[in-house]
Each structure stands twice: as structure tokens, then as C-alpha cells.
Design a protein that fits this description.
The structure holds two protein chains of two kinds. By secondary structure, chain A is of the alpha/beta class. Chain A has helices at 40-47, 68-76, 93-103, 108-121, 137-149, 167-180, 193-199, 217-222, 234-247; strands at 3-12, 15-25, 28-33, 55-60, 78-81, 155-159, 185-189, 202-207, 210-215. Chain A is globular and about 55 Å long. Chain B is elongated and about 100 Å long. The chains are: A alpha/beta, B mainly alpha.
């Protein structure tokens, strides 16, 4: 398993953002659904080794991120796109992705090819030399994805990756996700259930810091049967049904 | 976006590197390319021209003057720009919301911080050396003697990593768009004000890289002309700057998140060693003393070989009494000869009159407080045939016109020369004072005094009569046996 979480909690002051999550994930695309404030981003940040858990145990790529040496090993095989993607406006697309390739300790000899591949893979080949300041929000999002996949990560964590993408880009992105999920563990945090339906083999639904559903998208959709849950699509109705059940 | 596993060539392919670089090299190249310093280069060049180049060119074309002026003023130019640029880079991750993204990468934070700092420093050094190159290039074409002084350049270059580290640390600690201008102004003011605390040659504040020699004197022609430029103070300054740089950069690597335990331990050790080195350098600067040749000597760093004079061939006038100057002063020879010619005509042929005027090194002595006394070692006239030892007035550049300089030479050197012949100077008799004033046609005596009247009387005599009287009475005049009443 590339991701193993056991009773993981995370507090910010008195707020418990993640309240005892236990889960495992192997290769494939896992969709992390949940309403705003459910704890998805905090869980993802812990998996990205950006913040440590307040309690519980995490193992990523078979290693414990608590120790610096192992955390560094994990980070070499990690790709992460945070919810609020920062960028250096004067860097070009290629430079930005190269910057992250170097920060991920890729062998220098591989960097050139890997950068070109990542940029091409997100469809920005014709913008490779453009400064980031000149790109649209959707393009910047794709640059963020390019830096995340440049090291061909074993564990890819994407927080709201499709925000700002137009429908065409979103379709392409889902295809990319499916492709990446063949070899790597991809965890996608999103509140767009159609993304989950199209790209994820498995789905976890979070609410108030806990995972309240775990299964396939079809199983989630099936939870709406026999209920009057709101939603325009089966997955949305399943999502609403689970949340209503948990909160009742 | 596509899911295709095979990557086609980009529309505008990324150029392959010709030289394989390490990760650090590639990182540095990226940072160099996207550094903010190049944008500040035109401003730096303009400030350098205004603050350093023009004042330096106002000095005579002597390497010591140009180099010592350059050290202080050029750093004043670069402090705000380098500190500001480094603070801008240091605060970059915070300002652009990149902290989240980069903190999840494998390389230690210290690595990427050092890369950004190094790029800023590289650009600053390039800018500095470019400015120095222009100044030294022009000076090389103008100077009559000598060669570039490198220690001021070394101190300047050593300052830049320290300024850069200072700005970078400030930016990293307070990542805001207001930090760079604030820290740049604060650093500039602190830098300039620090020199105001220098009192005497034992001041610890001499460790400031602004200081190129005894602070009270400033750039002086006599310093590092007859004797080598002492590296004592520059060595202490370089030690201080290197220590400061190490301490600041080490401090960057200490906080949690900067790296692993080994790396943070190394950073802490670097910071401590840097602090110790910087403190040692400050202590050494405090032991400095003004040496007789006008430089700050630090006993623990002093090399006795630096006290040997520099060999040179003087440039001499083709006059009846040759006037010989150090070749660095060659440009002043005609003025000095013209200024002394009336005096030399008066004393020519008198018993004991000098057969040659030869410039010697001035001596420097620290007075209490900030005063420095500049004088001459030994008697004004010595040897057989007699040679008058000439010490030119200091700070020639402040004499804005040739006429001012000639008047100064006549008033000081001419007076010395006449005093040496007729026996004047301190403790001179009224008769000696009157004869000296009469020969020089000056009026330094109290108006209406008998001595002043005698001086006027003596000056009014025909030159031949004065000369004849002096030939007959010079021996008695020198011994003080001539009274005012005995003067013609």
C-alpha cells in the first residue's frame, strides 16, 4: 500500500480538522469527496508531508514520514498540487517545472527530458517558453499539475485540481488522471462529483473530519436508491444521501 | 492535456544543455536568469556614476586616492540595492504563496534559499567588479605611477555576500513586499551611521567596510604612496564580513524545516563559527593603531615586510636647485617648481642653502580624539650637500585651483625652506621672523610691531642687497645673535 493512515487526527488550535481517519490506498485513482470544511485539504497536506499529524500513524510509500531521512525519500516519489497554487510570475513554464524537478532531487541528466514530457503531457508544449505571469488561471493550474508529475510520482496528491479548467481541459485532465493511476496512487480531493465518476476507481467521502463512506463510485451512487436525496446525477444523489444519513 | 504515455516533441523544443550541470548548478542558473538584480543594474550604474565615479575622478589620478574613495562610496551605492534585492528574493516564497508547494519537496529549504542568495550575490559581484573595472581602467590611463590597489576591491567584494545575506534573512523572516525597501533603507542608514562612531585609531567601528584607512584623514595622497598599502585592516574587515555572512546564512538553516538534523547542526555550527570569526575581527580592529606611514596597523596581523618603503625613481625639475618629487606626484612638479622658484632664488648661494629639494614621506601621528598630525620625520635639511626634505601639503584634491595649491606650497614649504636656512620655526627670534617674512613677502607678524616693520624694510631692499646682507650675517642670524635693530 502506498498510503496507510491509522487513526490520524489533526488539530488546529481547538479545531479538529481530521478526527481519526484510517484508510489505505494502493495504485489507482482515489477520489476524496466532501463538503467544505470536511478536512480533505488537511488530510491531503498530511499525506503531502507538509504538516505532521497531531496523532495517529502515517506510512507513505512504505516509509514513516516522521523521520527526516524517510520523509525526504517519500518526497522524491511525491507529487502535490495544493489548493492555492503559488507561482513565480517571472519564471517560464519550463523553468518552473525544472525548478521543481530539481527540488524533487531528480537526477540532473533526466531533468531536461522529464520537464519536456511533463509540460507536453499537460498540453502546454506551445507555451513552454511563456512566462507564468502571462498565463490564464486554467493554464497555471496545468503548470501546477506538470510540476507535480514531473518526477513520475508514485503518490500524486491533487487538491481541487480541476478548479479553473474549462470543460475540454477537464475531460483531458480526467484522461490524464486515469493514465497516471495505472502505475501510481493518485488521491484527488474535489467537491465536483462528476470528476470522481469519470476518473476515480474508488471514492472516499469525508464529513467533519471523518471518512463516512468508502467504496466505488457506483456504490456511492447506489446509496441514493430508495431515498429522496437531492442531486442532478446519481453520484450527487448518493453523496447527498450519505451525508444526510451521517448527519441524521 | 493528454494521457498519451509517449511524449511528442514540444512545439518549441527546450534547448539541450551543452555542459552537464549538477543540480546546484542548474538551480543557480535558473535563479541567475530570473533574479531581480539585473533590473537594478541600470540604477546601480547611475548611482555609481553619481556617488563614486564623479567624486573619484575629482581626485588627482593617484591609485591610492581613487581606490580609497571607491571603497567607501561604491559600497554606499550597493548596500541599498543588494540588500533590497536580496530581501525581495528572501521573501519570494511567502509573497507568492509558494511555501506550501515547495515545503513538500525533497531538497532542504536551505538549499533553495542558498541558491537564490548565491544568484543575487553573483549579480552584485558582477555589478561591483564592472564598476570597479571602469574606475580602475580610467585611472590606469591617467595615473603617472603605481598600480591598482586590490585590497579595497577585496573588501568590496567580500561585503556583497554579507549584504546579500542580511537582506535575504530579513526577507525570509518577514516575507512582505514592504520588507525590501524598509530593510534597504535601514541597512544604508546603519552602514553610514556606523562610521560616525569611529574615534581614533583604536576604534572597533573601523571594521566597517566603509573604512579604507584612518577615518579622520580620508583619502590622502601620502598614504600608500611611499610605503605599501597595509592589508591589516582589510584582512580584519574581510574576516568580519565572511563571519557575518556565515552567521547569517547559518541562521537561515537552523529553524525546523530547513533540513535534516545533520544539515541543521551544520548550519548552527556555521553560524557559531561565523559569529566567533566576526567577533574576533571586531576585536582585532579595536587593536589597530595609526602607523607612521598613515595606515592602520593591527599588531596581530601585521607583517614587518610591509614597512619597507616602495622603491621608486623620483622625477626632478631641470632648475638650478633641482626639485624632486615622488613619481606619483609628477603632475604637480611644474606647480611646485613655480611656487618655490622665488624662494629658491632668494636662498641660492647662501651658506647652508639646500642644493636639492627632495620630497619625502609624510609622517602621521594620532592625536587625542579624532585628530591626526601630519608632519615630517627628522630635520628639514640634512646631508652634504644639503638636501631639503619636502613634505607636500595633504589633500591636494581639495585645492580646487592650481593657484590655491601654489599659494599653499609657497606658504608652507617655502616657509619651511626659509626657516631651515635662516633658522626660523618654533622659538625663532624676532629678527629671524622678520627676515623670513621679508624674504617670503608675507605678513605673519603682528601688524604695527617692530618685527613687522623690520620685515617690510627688509622686503623693500633690492634682491642683491638682501642677498649680500644675508651672505655676511647668516651665521649670526642663525645663532640668534642678530637683533631687529641690526637688520638693514
Amino acid at each position: 500500500m502506498n498510503v496507510e493512515l491509522i487513526e490520524v487526527t489533526r488539530r488546529f488550535g481547538r479545531t479538529r480538522a481530521v478526527a481519526g481517519v484510517t484508510m489505505e490506498a494502493g495504485p489507482g485513482v482515489l477520489g476524496l469527496l466532501g463538503p467544505n470544511g470536511a478536512g480533505k485539504t488537511s488530510l491531503l497536506r498530511m499525506m503531502a508531508t507538509v504538516i505532521p499529524p497531531s496523532s495517529g500513524r502515517i506510512r507513505l510509500l512504505g516509509r514513516d514520514p516522521g523521520g527526516y531521512g524517510q520523509r525526504r525519500q517519500i518526497r522524491r516519489g511525491l507529487g502535490y498540487v495544493p489548493q492555492n497554487l503559488g507561482y513565480y510570475p517571472r519564471f517560464t513554464v519550463v523553468e518552473f517545472v525544472e525548478y521543481f524537478a530539481l527540488l524533487k532531487e531528480m537526477p540532473p541528466a533526466r531533468v531536461h527530458h522529464a520537464v519536456a514530457a511533463a509540460v507536453e503531457r499537460v498540453g502546454l508544449g506551445d507555451k513552454a517558453r511563456a512566462k507564468l505571469a502571462t498565463l490564464s488561471g486554467g493554464m497555471l493550474r496545468r503548470v501546477g499539475i506538470a510540476q507535480a508529475i514531473v518526477n513520475e510520482p508514485e503518490l500524486l496528491l491533487l487538491d481541487e485540481p480541476t478548479a479553473g479548467l474549462d470543460p475540454e481541459q477537464r475531460v483531458a485532465f480526467r484522461a490524464l488522471l486515469r493514465d497516471l493511476g495505472q502505475a501510481a496512487t493518485v488521491v484527488v480531493s474535489t467537491h465536483l462529483v462528476e470528476d470522481v465518476g469519470a476518473a476515480c476507481a474508488r471514492v472516499a467521502l469525508m464529513d467533519r473530519g471523518r471518512i463516512v463512506f468508502r467504496g466505488t463510485p457506483d456504490e456511492l451512487a447506489g446509496r441514493a436508491e430508495g431515498t429522496s436525496a437531492a442531486g442532478d446525477a446519481p453520484l450527487e444523489r448518493g453523496y447527498s444521501a450519505v451525508l444526510a444519513e451521517v448527519r441524521s | 492535456m493528454t494521457a498519451a504515455p509517449v511524449v511528442p516533441a514540444p512545439a518549441r523544443p527546450v534547448r539541450a544543455l551543452r555542459v552537464p550541470l549538477t543540480a546546484a548548478g542548474r538551480m543557480l542558473r535558473l535563479e541567475l536568469r530570473r533574479n531581480v538584480m539585473p533590473w537594478l543594474l541600470p540604477l546601480t550604474a547611475g548611482l555609481f556614476w553619481f556617488i563614486t565615479y564623479r567624486p573619484s575622478m575629482a581626485y588627482p589620478p593617484m591609485w591610492n586616492l581613487r581606490a580609497m574613495t571607491m571603497q567607501g562610496t561604491s559600497l554606499a551605492v550597493l548596500v541599498p540595492t543588494v540588500v533590497g534585492a536580496a530581501a525581495w528574493l528572501g521573501s519570494r516564497e511567502g509573497r507568492h504563496g509558494m511555501a506550501e508547494l515547495v515545503s513538500g519537496t525533497a531538497r532542504p529549504r536551505w538549499f533553495r534559499q542558498l541558491a537564490a542568495w548565491a544568484a543575487t550575490t553573483c549579480w552584485a559581484v558582477v555589478a561591483y567588479l564592472g564598476c570597479v573595472g571602469v574606475l580602475y581602467g580610467v585611472t590606469a590611463r591617467q595615473a603617472a605611477w603605481g598600480g591598482p590597489l586590490w585590497w579595497p576591491v577585496v573588501v568590496g567584494v567580500a561585503s556583497l555576500p554579507a549584504f546579500s545575506a542580511l537582506g535575504f534573512v530579513a526577507g525570509a523572516l518577514r516575507p512582505s513586499r514592504f520588507t525590501p525597501p524598509l530593510v534597504a533603507v535601514a541597512a544604508f542608514l546603519a552602514f553610514e551611521i556606523s562610521a560616525q562612531f569611529i574615534h581614533g585609531d583604536h576604534s572597533y567601528w573601523q571594521v566597517s567596510p566603509l573604512v579604507a584607512g584612518p577615518w579622520e584623514i580620508g583619502p590622502d595622497e601620502g598614504v600608500a604612496t611611499f610605503y605599501p598599502y597595509l592589508p591589516d585592516l582589510p584582512i580584519a574587515q574581510v574576516m568580519f564580513l565572511a563571519g557575518l555572512t556565515a552567521a547569517l546564512l547559518g541562521a537561515l538553516g537552523v529553524p525546523a524545516g530547513a533540513g535534516g538534523r545533520w544539515l541543521r547542526g551544520s548550519a548552527a555550527a556555521t553560524a557559531v563559527v561565523g559569529l566567533v570569526v566576526a567577533a574576533t575581527a571586531v576585536g582585532l580592529a579595536g587593536t589597530g593603531r595609526l602607523d607612521v606611514h598613515g595606515m592602520i596597523a593591527i599588531p596581530a596581523l601585521h607583517d614587518a615586510a610591509d614597512d619597507d618603503p616602495i622603491r621608486y625613481s623620483p622625477v626632478c625639475s631641470r632648475t638650478a636647485v633641482p626639485v624632486c618629487l615622488h613619481p606619483a606626484y609628477a603632475g604637480y612638479l611644474p606647480v611646485v617648481v613655480d611656487a618655490l622658484e622665488p624662494v629658491l632664488r632668494e636662498v641660492a648661494g647662501l651658506p647652508g642653502a639646500p642644493a636639492r629639494i627632495s620630497q619625502v614621506a609624510a609622517t602621521y601621528r594620532q592625536d587625542p580624539g579624532n585628530g591626526v598630525r601630519i608632519g615630517r620625520a627628522g630635520p628639514p635639511v640634512s646631508g652634504t650637500p644639503p638636501v631639503f626634505h619636502l613634505v607636500l601639503p595633504s589633500h591636494l584634491a581639495r585645492r580646487t585651483a592650481t593657484g590655491d595649491f601654489a599659494a599653499e606650497v609657497r606658504a608652507t614649504v617655502g616657509r619651511d625652506l626659509v626657516d631651515a636656512v635662516v633658522g626660523g620655526g618654533r622659538g625663532a627670534t624676532p629678527a629671524q621672523q622678520a627676515v623670513a617674512d621679508g624674504m617670503l613677502r608675507t605678513s605673519t607678524l603682528p601688524p604695527g610691531s617692530p618685527a613687522a616693520a623690520a620685515a617690510r624694510r627688509f622686503a623693500a631692499l633690492p634682491a642683491a642687497a638682501r642677498h649680500a646682507w644675508l651672505v655676511d650675517h647668516l651665521a649670526a642670524l642663525r645663532t640668534g645673535d642678530v637683533t631687529l635693530g641690526q637688520l638693514p
